[in-house]
Design brief:
By secondary structure, the chain is α+β, with helices and mostly antiparallel strands. Helix content is 30%, strand content 31%. The strands form 2 sheets. Strands 1-2-3 form a 3-stranded antiparallel β-sheet. A 3-stranded antiparallel β-sheet has the order 4-5-6. Strand 2 and strand 3 form a beta hairpin. The longest helix is centred in the C-terminal third of the chain and has 13 residues. The structure holds zinc ion. The site of zinc ion has 7 residues, from helix 2.
Length: 105
């Protein structure tokens, strides 16, 4: 679907900037992206299945940035974080929905 195709993805200072094929623009903060990380471990932490359930502090997010964005197939990107976390694979559809959710608030 055309709507879910990015034409440019750029790492900003505190957010990921995405230009979409349908000319929509997204700016997703690193904090939001990391909080919504779709990997199994983060998902378990969010849903409190993780017995330790340690949520990061505000400081953690202030110092967090992206060190790399790797394309995964034709439908997703892997985000590599400055703390070494790299298991989150974000589909373009997920990123677009996140962006529309964030701007609706
Ligand atoms: Zn994760």
């Amino acid at each position: 679907m055309q709507k879910f195709r990015p034409t440019h993805i750029k790492r900003g200072d505190t957010s990921l900037e995405i230009q979409w094929k349908d000319s929509h623009q997204s700016e997703l903060s690193y904090r939001l992206l990391r909080q919504k990380c779709p990997c199994a471990r983060c998902d378990a932490t969010r849903s409190e299945k993780d017995p330790f359930h340690i949520l990061p502090s505000d400081d953690f997010f202030e110092n967090l940035h992206l060190v790399d964005i790797q394309q995964v197939g034709r439908y997703a990107v892997r985000l590599v974080w400055s703390d070494g976390h790299r298991t989150g694979i974000y589909t373009f559809q997920f990123l677009r929905e996140l962006s529309e959710e964030a701007s609706a608030i």
